[in-house]
């Protein structure tokens, strides 16, 4: 007995068992019902049947509302799917147009490169274009050493 009182887990389990035993005992007590007359039983049956019919109508209305809601959701889904497909087709058309333009530019670029190579392939004959020389000077300034590495002194300081 002393072991039961010292161990808190066993004590809690024992208390829970006893309390559940008394709860079950209270639930088992039957409630006395008064005997019903035949008229009362018929009245309750008609009330039940009217309640059942009202419940059936409510269930039918609920099912109709659910079906309508399902149709609306399905229609919205179809519209969104159609819009997405239209957007996808438009994007694919834009991609095709962009690819065509890129191919056209690539062909134009390859034509100018081949013409330039044909012109420069002459033995000892090189005629640079004016714009190519200007571009070369600009790029040499851009890619050359920074100004801080090659400072130019003004004429006033040298004197």
Tally of strands: 0
* Average pLDDT reading: 79
The gross shape turns out to be elongated
Spatial separation of the terminal alpha carbons: 116 Å
User: Structural class, judged by helices and strands?
Assistant: mainly alpha
Characterize the biggest β-sheet: none
Low-confidence stretches: none
Task: Briefly say what this structure is.
The protein is mostly helical and 159 residues long. The protein has helices spanning 2-6, 8-27, 38-120, 130-143, 155-158.
Helix and strand arrangement:
Elements: H1 2-6, H2 8-27, H3 38-120, H4 130-143, H5 155-158
Characterization of the model:
- The protein is an all-alpha fold.
- The protein has a domain at 45-113.
- 79% of the residues lie in helices and 0% in strands.
- It has helices spanning 2-6, 8-27, 38-120, 130-143, 155-158.
- The termini are far apart.
Name its key features.
159 residues; mainly alpha; transmembrane; transmembrane helix; membrane
